[in-house]
Amino acid sequence: MSFEIVDNVLNITVDSTMTLAMAAVLLLIGYFVRRKASFLTKYCIPAPVVGGFLFMFVTFAGHMSGTFSFTFTNSFQDVFMLAFFVTVGLGASYKLLVKGGILLLIYWVTAGIISVFQNVIGVAVGTAVGLEAPYALLSSAISMIGGHGAALAYGTTFEEVGFTAATSVGAAAATFGLISGVLLGGPLGRRLIVKYDLKPEEEQQNFDDISKVNAASGEALSSLDIIKNVTVIIVCMALGTMVSGWIGSLINMSFPTYVGAMFVAVIARNLNEVFHFYNFSFSLVDGIGDVMLNLYLSLAMMTLKLWELTDLMGGMLVILLCQVIFMALVAYFVVFRVLGKSYDAAVMCAGLCGHGLGATPSAIVNMTAVTERYGMSSRAFMVVPIVGAFLVDVIYQPQTIAFIKAFVPAASSLVG
Question: What is the DSSP letter of 309?
Answer without folding.
Answer: G
